[in-house]
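Duplicate of earlier report; Toll-like receptor 4 input re-posted below.
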Amino acid sequence: MPFFLIYSILFLVDFQYGNGQRFIGKSCKIFYDISPTNVICDVTSGEQWCLDSFRELMNGTKKSYLGDDQFTLEIECHGGGNISIRQPIKLPGMTSLTVRNCYITDYYDYDFSPEVLSIESVLQKLKFTNCKIEYSHLVHVKHIRKNFRKLLTHEKCQISNTLRTFIFQNSSLNFIERSERFSIANKSEEYYRNELKRHERCAHNNLKYIEMSSLDRYTAEIRINELLQNGIFNSLNVINLTNNNLARTPSSLFTYSMYETVDRLEQIDLSRNKIEDISFIYIPIMFNSHLNVDLSKNVITEISNQDMKKLKALKRNTVNIRENPLICTCNQKSFYEFIAEINDKNWRQYTYLKTMQCIDQESKRNLKNISEYSYERMCKKTESLVGAREGIFERNKYSILAFLLVLLAILVTCLLFKYKSRIAQLYRVKTSIQCHCPDNPKHYDAFISYSSSDERWVYDVLFKRLQSLLPDASLCLHHKDFIPGACIAENIINSVENSRFTLLVLSSNFIESEWCQLEFQKAFHQTLKHRRHLLVLLIEDIDFSLLDYDLRFFLQTYTYLKYSDKMFWQKLTATLQISTKSNKISHSHNPVFKQLLQ
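Output:
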């Protein structure tokens, strides 16, 4: 930092105004009459506030104006102000950080300088309200790669172990990556994240309150899943996910794994979302805490008999369904019986249900108290109608069944008549290509499909070994069997069709080759016609998620051979059963090659 800038900042630090207040820097002021001491920074449009610079400033002034006292820091932006905050978030003596209305950069960057690592964190509360955090996959991966070892040692959890309250409210990530580069960066980031996860889970021993509210559904699910799936929360009391437009609960909630990591959880707030039922709720019997699940102001219209069994099984725990648009239907007999059982001794936590209202099923408008709903009176008429319908069906079931069978026969006849030519064509194709019969011999025993980058292994290892093990085998290779002057695609198609098998040498090089993909598609088509045509030889470990759909489907459906298998050569030679000489034809008798040569 230039000397004149430091001098001017120190000059501003010395300026006092009013009682119990003092400037620190251009935009920040200290309030001494609040305990703990409060530092407030106002960042205006076009101004850039930086946590690193503020830390340098505080190192020179904190002793003079704050001593060893702790303080809270509030940053509020006006008119689109920008601030820079790098991880880890540390300032000497700072117990709380609140950021409002700011555009935040560098949040996924790291500063592991000795100066920062020497600071003992006392941060207890971290709150972001109405903020946008700039996010780039490429930049994030770059920072993780650069600081990977220090992340494993110091800050792989991102949230300080001293933190008690974490609030992310009405905020979002601002993605600045172009779509074509996004997927590449995402794979690299996933690799490093998985490496971090292999180490011990983050122990958030002091975290009591987590709030992620007023977010979009995607952001809320991603952030809470990342936090809960990678941490242990010995003191966590509240998870607040209100007003996130959730139609379903995040996958990390109400799972056995969650209850293994939360010992003292008392409340999960899912109010003001779009959840339609309570079937997702699961609380194990061995969970010792009293849990309150808040589902008020959702879109629950019915408590089914199955849901009611689950609700009763929760016993000492409570599910709050206030202010949901319940409909009084005849499918909730157990629910009405449950409300009748509620009194000062039984189910006291659900006393509020007696005063709740539901929409009348018939009028769809009128509201009535659920406790006044008479199942016997309102549903008797419905049950009698259902019984009458069942009696009519029972008396005439054989006539109805005969009518349905006649109707089905007429429908099948019409379809056969309409598509008779297509059915005949499919039958001819099916009967003509079932197998490689003696009257339909192949010129080669196997066509070897491979990437040019794997050429050396194919020639020096695969080809020579097969020749020694199967001296009578006829193998088709690019360099020696492709017809000169013919189109590459035509050569590929003819080689596949004129071979009993296609040996596909699968590697990372193969995946990147367009010609190899064409060879696979043709061989895959042959496999669909002839059950055992394509043999995949996996010569190295690859990520199956990088494969296209057909190749991934083939590997999941058919058996393939791994080069690392000790029985690789025995299995391969056993599969390549050599045809008799009468089943083979020479080049000169092959009509396809004759046509190509002409």
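Residues 1-18, 179-185, 428-439, 578-598 have pLDDT under 50 and may be disordered.

Merging into the original ticket.
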